[in-house]
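Service request form, structural biology core

Requester: graduate student, group of Dr. S.
Request type: structure prediction, single chain
Budget code: on file
Notes: please return the result as structure tokens.

Sequence provided:
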Amino acid sequence: MKLRAYQQDAINKTFALICEHVSVLNVMFTGGGKTVVFAHIIKRFLQENPGKRVMVIAERSKIVKQAQKTLGKILGCNVGIEMAEHRVNMNHDMFAPRVIVGTVQTQARGGDGLGRLGKFDPSGFGLLIIDECVVGDTVVDGKPIASRKIGDVIHTHCGYGTVTHVFRNPVHCLYRLTTRDGRCLIGTANHPVLTERGWVPLSLLTTNSILHTTTISKGNKRERKGLRRVWKRVIENWRRSRRDFASGGHPSVAGYEESFISGITRVKSVEVLESESGDEFGKVCPDGYVYNLEVSNGNTYFANGILVHNCHHAVAPQYRKLIDYYTTNPDLRIVGVTATPDRSDEKAMGQVFNAVACNYDIHFGVMEGWIVKPRTIMPTIRSLDISHVGSYCGDFKQDELAEELSKDKPMYEIAATAIRLCEDKKTIIFCVTVKQAERLTDIINQLKPDSARLVHGGTPEEERDVLYHDYAERRFQFLVNVGVAIEGFDDPGVEMIVDAAMTKSRARYTQKLGRMLRPAENIANALNEHADVCARKQLIADSTKPCAVYVDLVGNSGRHKPIFVGDVLGGRYDDDVIVRARKKAEKAGERDESVDMEELLAKAAKEIEVNKRRQALRRANIKVRVKYTLEETDPFNIYDVRPVDRTGVSEYNTRKLNEKQIMFLTRQGVRDADKIPFRDAVRLLRRISADLKAGRASYRQLAALKRCGLPTKVPWTRASASVALDKAYGKTTKEETHERRTEQIESGHAVT
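Core staff response, request fulfilled:
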């Protein structure tokens, strides 16, 4: 397979950097060939290191299978899979595969403390590849505890509770709890954990203590069968010690069956980590803080699946555990690849990767002619109002967003808009929740029968594969999904995306945008044969898929603006350019017109630059004009008198006019009245007031006469000054108009 120039450049830079750094990150746009790049990195590494193996870690099973297929094709050797029922036999080192692909979840969790990591000897591996790398945090109901906010609804021991307070405190000593099924929890010494003996602080836990979790252990069947018996014992212990979960009373066995608890595990070890201990404490607690949630309805929650009653630290075990295990080999090197290094991930990325080899974003891919140009339509959904939807951790609150999007009026309007704009084009629709996706699928099928199908995380793997195959064969038009057609979903036939799951996360938006940017399948290989950028762009323009269209739904969003295509492509532009481009796109969306965002951004930037130049010229002209006017309307020049000699009179530098006097002079046409010395201003006030009382010409009239070159010493009345000015400016008086009218009537030329 022939490598593209930027792919070869990424490989060369990666090998140059891993000579100096332990870990290197590669950023490459979706469709840029990340798998091809790390496959060639592996190929070169194995050639240079004959006795070493390579471990590839991915987040999803689909990515693992795709990686195995690509690696096998490029490397020409057997590639093992360590995932779910797939297991690599490492008993015979000579016959074990040199390249192994697996998921982080499978490796980090299992029946013993190391999960499946224990079967792999770190010293035998020289390279660790992390595909779509992420460093997670301690998870509370699927989200990092550090991102939890007041008002969030989470699971407790007896159903659901609301976060009423979030605490963040410094810490110098931590305890790390490791369970037999691979879980890890880090907290303070007095951090209570639920055991068969009731609430026990971390520092007092003993080996083999039973802990309550959210998933049933796959270990001893006797432990699972005895769960109900253990729960009864816990209740009795609480009653004897008079210790409640919360003010609501004791839990019950029935309450347990309805609760979120569904399994048990046992403690494997508890170790102490002190800030003076150095690197180990810094790894698990880089910011030196612990977090605590106060929760209604039980004051309990599940941290990494373990039922707890108090604070714990926000560092997850999975990626950290896996990396720490393999890096016990000091010669190991880590290479990460990703398409979406969002700004919010930089801190986490920095804890793993020391250097960046390349950064090829979507803009690079479009400008170099490797992916199709994205266009956008921003139709207005008038019944959609997300202005009241809250936000946390840099994105919309998903439950509030889903509630608004699931209302009937917005749902029907979104469905009708999708059918109208997409016509017969192959389309992916993103939704927030399964409930919203099911309803939207039903409405679309009502309006356009058998055109939409739904896939989500709960869809069985076999059914999902059938859906993807039918979609690739164009047996239906709309693939409605909830978070599954993002990573690992590669269908070059996708022509449009309708985003009914608005987001403020640049990373999430970029993942969705990348699903439609792959060029048509029949020209994908031909692009590699053209070294010229213009030739590649022309090839895409002449193909069956010259561009792809992203439908950004516009509603009343208030001050929380969702991400749109311009935010992704406008990285080199200022914010005011992106805002202007958004307004233009929204205006075009009202006419159902798609716009080329690259062209729109460039046009907006040019308009702003032109406006800045015009404003600069206007300001310069205003300065000149003001200066000229001040010279021509000098108040003493108007009256043909000179101001008195103020030499030696200190009063002129101290006294000032009052506000009424300044306002009177300003109304009469005197500019900058507040800057005229006091005695001069008093003379002006007296002169102007006397002229007004006597019926003489006003100051404003005299200034106009002066500009017209007429003398001001003449005793002008207001009426005579007005007639003179009318003549000077070419205007006619009422008497002259009447006389002219009479002459026209007498001569018979008047029109009646």
